[in-house]
Amino acid sequence: MLYREYETWRGAPYRLGGLSERGVDCSGLVYLTFRDAFATPLPRTTRKQSTKGEPVSRHALQSGDLVFFQTGVNTRHVGIYIEQNKFLHASTSRGVMVSYLTSDYWDARFTHARRIPIQ
């Protein structure tokens, strides 16, 4: 299911506050994916999304878990775990894409993960 979402959103540019294929930000992509693919409501912002569901360790991640990163002093980032250390997200530089948690960049910035109950 998440690969289908990726195909829908693939290459959509990053746009702060965006909620369409013309531009979407990281929390917007998560918000829309959970709403449309899982029929599960989530808050719109990364900060609020980071408090929902239950904490899950990095080593116990499952498809659909939210993964969070600290990308700057006051900047957070969120994506959706797919499988095999891959996650779906809206990159500020490359738009909607799949990246590896194990890459040097994301590995160093990973903060926590949350499991959202699917309704």
UniProtKB/TrEMBL annotation:
Keywords, alphabetical: Hydrolase, Protease, Signal, Thiol protease
Domain (NlpC/P60): residue spans on this chain: 1-117
Superkingdom of origin organism: Bacteria
SUPFAM superfamilies: Cysteine proteinases (SSF54001)
A Pfam family that the UniProt record links to this protein: NLPC_P60
InterPro entries: Murein_DD/LD_carboxypeptidase, NLP_P60_dom, Papain-like_cys_pep_sf
Family the UniProt entry places it in: Belongs to the peptidase C40 family.
Name the record gives this protein: NlpC/P60 domain-containing protein
Organism of derivation: Thalassolituus maritimus
